[in-house]
């Protein structure tokens, strides 16, 4: 509990329609951070436009302007600010919106544990300390589109249709690889230069979440896009908090959505490759399952892949 | 109907014309035998008439005997005429001309009859005169003796007189007169007075004979002049005329009949052809009908089977939909309730933790106080100051109050919500429970609370209500649904007004929202299953149909009053007294309940 000078303290904006929540949060954090509160979405957007914040924490369900809208406005107006959603209950649409439009850092569910919330907020403040870098422009100075060569796309799905759709959408402008099992995926990752992975949540009866957490740990610049036909609110929250997935798409997705997602994801990969410090902005909570002995084999395999091929 | 009447009338007309024609051809039986008999009768009458006339003419010539032949002829003729007159009916109906002719004839015959008796008297007188004359002559001749001259004269006179009498048209009258006048002179009075007298008597007899003969002649002429023969001829002619006229008219009718009959035959043939044509068509359609009839049974059976299956599918789907509507509204409710509970839980828990954390500061401060009291000095005072800086008792205690107050408030809210949920979801299958609708409305409002927050003001105008027998959980669902819809209809800020009142036999609940309202077309459909104004996926369109069913099961009524932009009012009216059948039905029906109960 160190008292920093007022100006040096991280600025945090809390948004909630329940004033008691704001009081509680303020009581918790007023010693550590510079706290601003907004009693609703509209007021929050006004504040975002006129003030600078390092971290923005918003409730989702609010009358009038929702949390997703607040976070979208924050991303557009203050891309540096790290965005969190604090919510008692969110329907899937709100979660998908906050992932794809809000590029959210964490979901925090109500009721929260003060200890965890402090840790989350601290990691958010750390993430926000890294200056945000905009993605490289989609076209070069001459206006010619430049597909980053060498950035391969891997599709991990036991439904071949996903690969076919993506291949069709990209019109073979990129290297696209397909894997239908986690092992196959690791095989391809070890042999090819892969920057973006499109994955279903369950492949060959195996959950991919653990793989994603492991990959995030050892290959943090790999951009993950989840494409699924059965998204679930709880799953999605895990995918953000432990996997920092970049996008969540629902099947079936149109060609234009797929193409756009691949383009922006590869540019992000390129950016992360060039600016490794940016990885701090997408740091994840350690996945407790990774500590389990069962995950050991997987971890060591992944470690081997990335120490041999990517470290060089 | 009219057509049938026309056809029947036409058939009757055709038959009537046919009957008329047949009657016309058959009306006077054109029996050839009768015709021949008639003609032969008339001819025989003519013949007899001629014979009769002949006898009449002959009779005046017979000088001596009674005219027996005449009498016989007369008798025969009279008999025949009488028979003819008697049987003249055979000639009746033949024609007026014939009857006139017949009348003429009968008149002539009567006249002839009359004349005939006169004639016969004359004839007998004439005969006796002639006999007298002959006797006178014989006497004269017996007495004349040798007077050859006189004898000769008398003989000549006698011959001439007889000739006169015998001749039909005697020419010797003058000669006879000359002889007669000279007769008396042949024997002078003086010669023989007796003879002379006898001669004078003879002369007188001759004269009277001649006179009688002349008389008879006249009578005969008159009698023969009676035109019985002409009349008969006329009758015959008229009969022939009438017969031929009739014959020709009959033959005309016959021709007409023939033409008509052939025309009818043609019509019949036409009708028959048409009939045959129609029958063929009829047969065809009959066959088709039989065919389709045979197939109908099958197709009806098949269709019934399909329909039955479709019905059971529909029932199943309806039950599933009702269930999914329930689950959807349950999900929505859970979302709301979770948020509603997690928010107070969030700050309550956080506040409690914060307070506990601040106990460290408090403890440090207290320890510093104790140290300062135990060993007062600069060091302990500085430590006390440090502790005070870390945890300011004025600010800190005030904050503690606020935080604990909030936590208390939050816990109170949570327990209230949990109570409403408990009330709301209680399982009741019968309508026997007594329930205050105001409580149900209050529960529904609590559950919807998160929809209202800062946006919608709830105005309660509760009247004092008796507890009514009902299924509380069902009515709670009704209120929740209507209040929820009202809240969704309000864009931005607004109000929901809830009025309840006791109206005699019923209890009335009115729920008014200041939302967007709806047009008449929407109002007409809102209670229909699957009707929804929400976006696809936002609602099943079953909510209000379930509401309607629940109210119906309670023997109540629900109506809607609304206009676009004017908000909406739902008025629910429920009976105070339980309806026995309703209670049973509610427990028996309600697939929502039935679905939930284990089979």
Automatic annotation (TrEMBL), chain A:
UniProt keyword annotations, A-Z: Hydrolase, Phosphoprotein
GO molecular function, one term: hydrolase activity
InterPro entries recorded: Bact_response_regulator, CheY-like_superfamily, Sig_transdc_resp-reg_receiver
GO biological process: phosphorelay signal transduction system
Domain Response regulatory: 11-125, 152-266
Name by which UniProt lists this protein: Phosphohydrolase
Residues the record lists as 4-aspartylphosphate modifications: 59
Organism: Stenotrophobium rhamnosiphilum
